[in-house]
Amino acid sequence: MLDAVGVALRDVGGYRSVVVNVYDAGRDRYVVGSVAGLATEGFNIDGASYERTAIERSLFRAEFQLAPNVYFIAAGDGEYGGLRTHVSPILVAPAVDVAAGDRWNEEDVLVIALTTADGRPLGMVSLDHPGSGLRPTRDDVGALLAMAAAAAGAIEDAQVLAEAQRHGAALRELIAFSQSPGVAASPEAIATQACTAARQLGYNAVAVLFQRVGRLQVSASAGMRPQELDELEQSAPLHEAFNGAAVDADGCAVLDGAPYDHPTGRGPHAWGRRRLAAPLREARGPAGGVIVVDRPVDALAPTEQRRLELRLLADRTMAAVVAARQRDELQHLATHDELTGLANRRAIDEAIDAVLARGGGTALVLFDLDRFKGINDRYGHEEGDRALSRFGRHLASSTPPGATAGRLGGEEFVLVLPGATASEARALADRIRTATPQQTAGSTPGVTVSAGVTHSAGAGTTRREFVAAADRALYRAKHAGRDRIEIEPLEAAA
Known about the structure:
Blueprint: H1 2-13, E1 15-24, E2 29-37, E3 49-51, H2 52-58, E4 65-67, E5 70-73, H3 84-87, E6 109-115, E7 121-130, H4 141-179, H5 187-200, E8 203-212, E9 215-222, H6 226-234, H7 236-242, E10 253-256, E11 274-281, E12 287-296, H8 304-335, H9 345-358, E13 362-369, H10 372-379, H11 381-398, E14 404-409, E15 412-418, H12 422-440, E16 449-456, H13 463-479, E17 485-487
C-alpha cells in the first residue's frame, strides 16, 4: 500500500523522488516505509526512523508552513542536519532557466504531514526533484493539500484494515485455543496454552497465576524474567485486580508503575510502564486466578479491542480449567467412594484383576466394622457416616505405597496388597485393627473392626476365588468374637 501511495504522489504530483514515512505511535517516531522514484537509486533508507519530536522541532515549524500540514524548507533555512537522509536523499536538481530564488535547490525539503481529521499523526511524505525544477509556491498549495488528503486517507484506511485483520486473527486464535485438545488437560497445561495464545495476540510477555493455598502463584509464563514473576506474586495492584477492586467495566485492569529497566515504547500513545491484567473468574463465582500481559509487539497502550481480546482469553482459560476440573471430578467419582474418598467396588475389581494378571504374590484383606448397625440405630445415620469417614481416613493413612484401599459398601472395606505375604498382610491388618477404636472415636464412641486375610500366588486365581477366601476368613473372625483377624489360605477355598 505504501509503495502505491509513493508511486501515485510521484506520478500525479510530478515529483521524481518520493519518500513515505509512517508514524509508529507506540514508539513515537516516523519510519521510512516506501521510497519511489529517483530516491531508490544508490540510497538504502528503508526502515530508517526519527523521533517525532525531532521532526516537529526541525521541520514542522510555522515559518516553513505553506498551508496546514505542508512545509517547505529552503536550503540553509532549517537545522535538520542528519534528518536529511530520513526525509529525502539529496539529489541534483535539473537546470532550469528561472531566477535563482525560484529554482529548486538540491538541499530543499518539501514535506507533507499526514494526519487524521482530528490531527492524529499518520505519517509524512517528503517530495524531491520536481519535474519542473521549481520550488513550490502558495499557488501549488491546493494540489499539495489534495495529495496530502489522499495519502492520509490511504494510510488510515490501511491501518483500520490492518487492525481489523489483526483483531480477526486474534479471534481465530481464541477460537483455536478453545477447541484445542489440550484444554482438557491439567490447569498447568491450560495455563501454558493460554500463554502461547497471548503471545499470538501480540504480547511479548505473559504470565498466568492461579490461587493456591490462599495466594497467587505463577503457573505458566512466557517472556518474563524470574524476578518479574517473583514481583508479580507479591504485587499489591495485581492482588487488587484479582479481588476485583481495580477491574474496569470491561473486566480488565491496567496496572501502572511496573518495575522495569526501560518502559515499552515512548510518547503519548505508548504502553510505557504498565501491565494489563484480567481475572480468571467463573460465571457468578470467585476469581480462581489472573492472566497478565506485557510488552506488546507494537508498544501501543491497550485499546478497547485489545482489552476485549484479553477478557475473552481469560474467560476461555477459566472455562477450560473448570471443564478440566469437572472432568477430573467425574473421573474421580467413577472410581472412588463418595463418602470416604477410597476406591469404589469398580476400582477395587480392576485393581484385583490387574495384580492377579501380573502374577506374583498378592494379599487381600477384608475389613468389617463391628456392630456398626448399633451406631446407626443409637446415634443416627449421619453419625454413622462420620464414623465410616473416620475409618476411611485411618485405612488410607495406613495403606503402603502401591496398595489399594477401598470401600466395598456399607461398613465393609478392603486392602489389595501386591507383593505382600499373608503374614505381612496380617501384621498390617492387626496394626489397623488395634488403632481403629481411637481413630474412629468422635461424637460417638470408637468402633472395633474384624478382618479376614488371604493370599494368592497369582497363577490361575480368579477374582471371585480370591475375594471368597478373604470373605470366609472375615466370617470366622466375626463369629469368633469380633475385633480380631483370621487368615484363610486360598488353597482352602478350592
